[in-house]
Structures are given as C-alpha cells and as structure tokens.
Amino acid sequence: MKLYERTTTSGLKLQAISMPGTNVITTLVLVGAGSRYETKENTGLSHFLEHMFFKGAKKYKTPKEVSEAVDSFGGEFNAFTGKEYAGYYVKSGKENLNTSLSVLSDMLIDATFPAAEIEKERGVILEEMAMYQDAPMYQISWDFERLVFGDQPLGWDQIGTAEVVKNISREAFVAYKESQYVAENMVIVCAGAVDENTLDKMEAMFPVSDKPRGIPPTSFNPSFATNQLKLRTKKTEQYHLSFGVQCLAETDPLFPALKVLGVALGGNMSSRMFQRVRETQGLCYSIRTNVDEYSDTGLMTTRAGVKVSEVLKAVAAIRHEYDEIAANGISQEECDKAINYLVGKTDLSTEDTEDVAHEYAKNALLYGHIETYDDWKNKVRAVKLADVNQLAKDLFQPENFRFAGIGPQQDEDKLKALLK
After folding, report:
1. Per residue in 3-16, pLDDT tens?
2. What is the value of pTM for the model shown?
3. Residues acting as catalytic residues
C-alpha cells in the first residue's frame, strides 16, 4: 500500500492510495459537516443537504440521471452523515474512475437544489426518522448518545428534528454548502487501483472554492450531561439496552489500551459479555461492547437485546462484568488475545478499498495527519496490561455509568439502583 498526496493551491487535500492486487477504486469525498456544525435552529441540516446533493446538478440534471450514471457500470454509490463529517463515495472498477469523479464533482460543486425535490425529500426524511424509531437496535445508540452527551451538538441525532425538516429553506442549503463545502474543509481520496497520476485527475475534477470554512465544530462540554438513565417505552418483543460510560477521545495516547479493554469486555464471541451473559446465563441473543470514538471524547457501550421478562437480571449481569474488571482487571492472556484480535481485524480492513479510503480521509480531515495501518498496529501491540486495568478502574466507577433502554415499561427505581 502506497500513499500519494497533495494539497492544492486552494487548500484541498488529495490522497491516492495504491493497493496492489485489486481492480477496484473507492472514490470518497469527506467534508467537515454534521451535528457538531449545527445549532438547535438547523439541526439535521447537514443530513438533509446530503440527500439533496443526489437531486441533480449541472451535468447530471435529475435524480435519475445521477443514479443511472453509476448504475450503468455496476458501481456502489452512497453517502452518510455523522456528527463530525459527511461522506460521499463511489466504489467501482478502475476503468470507471473518470465517471466516478465526474458524478461526485458535479453533485457537490454544481448542485441545483430544485424546490420541488426539496419538498419531496422532506417526506422521505420524515419516513427515515420513522424507520429508525421503529428499529430499536438503531435508536438505542442515539438515545445513549443523547443521555451521555446531553443537549449539545454531539448529543443530537444527525437526522435532526421533524420541525426543522418540515421548515428548512432552499436558502439554508445554499448558505451551508457555501460555508462548509470549501477546500480547507474537504478531503478527497481514491483508494485501490490508483497511482500518482490519479492526483492530477482528482485536482482537475474538483475546482473547489478556496473561501475559509464558515462554521467551526462545537467542542464537547461535559457539563451538559447530568442524567444517568433514559428510558423509552415501546411495545417490543425484546428489550434493547445500552450500558456504558463516557471515555477517552481517539486522540488520547491511551486510546489503543481502551480498544483492548473494549474487546476483552465484550468485543467478540470469546469476550466476557458474550460468554457469561449470553452463553452461560442465556439472557440475550445479541450482546456486544463497542468503543465509539470522537476527536475530543468517546463512548464505551455494551448494547444488548434481552428478554423482556429478565431486564433487571440482564442489567445486573452486565453491571457485574464492569465491576469485576474494575476490581480485578483482565488477565495477561485476555490482553494478548484482544491485541491479536485488533491487529487481525486491522489487517482484514486493509483489503477493502472503502475502509482504506475512509480511514485515511478521516485522519486527514480531523487531525491533519496520516496514521498508517502499521502505525496503528504498532500502537496496539505496545499496549500494556497495567494501562488497560488502570483504565478499567478509572472509568468503571458507579458515578460514570449510564443506561438507556427501549421496550415495555420497566421499574425505573430498580434500574436506577443497579447503576449505584
């Protein structure tokens, strides 16, 4: 894997990552946008704008023309909006790179935002909201973030609110695009069957504005988060829960140790959570501990779908595993297994052009530097057991625990007692 990179005179960061043995290229544009760049008055604007970029521009004038351009060669074409960035990508055979660049450039630079399409898309996004609300496995993550981060941009759902979606104007789209979709706030990456000459094609296809970025991201303020419990009553066959703590940012030197801790606790099928809560006690079907990283904070959460009749027992079992690690730590064997697991998963991700493009683009956009996969693996291999166990002791304290649940009504007082 070889990286070629360039910053244009306008400040646009370009990367071409050559991956031997593939005929595929993922072309990805990453932009500083999302809930951290919004206010209560326009929350969800970044996500709505993401939808509108697919509605036609100068060369591909209609939504059908946009989609047909990529469908015609069997490419994968999609976009996403997170809290710290939005992304747009085409994954295709190498012979279709020029078309991939053309489609992305046209939609992101020359989008027209037709009024009729805006009105139609309001309904589409409202239905997307309804879909997530009907899918507790998705909604529980958003509820937990709102609980832990509180009423500030990092705690808001990227999709926004129904009120904003119903009332946002075309002028707001235009202003936000001109503010955020500028060279210094964008990174373009091509990963796969590329070479140094690919940078020339990328630069020629993206004459992006050199205006300064208009809106900076809002920093995380820990004082906004004051509650420990958030319950959503809903008729479900399973109770969906998220139990965990606020933790380190991706930039923290101890972040690799945090990832090791997450794997040992509940990151795979041989972890404590899976073996003890599911396999031994049979309290759930799915259970997993994840580390969600941001530039200035993070989350460690154990999410599970449990029997409605045994919610309290399941929460107590999950809490027990957190307490056990806080008190006694993990073993050297567990630490070594988690390190090897993370290194192995990193190697697997290097086979996917989409994963590679995303990883390099994110580091360039958020942190202004490149961390190679070997850099990351070396950091993981250097993790010390003592650091992992000290993190567990520091993080897994009762005052740090948070719990979100979705399902039939539960005894709130008894759940609160399990957090103390």
Report:
1. 999 999 999 999 99
2. 0.93
3. 50
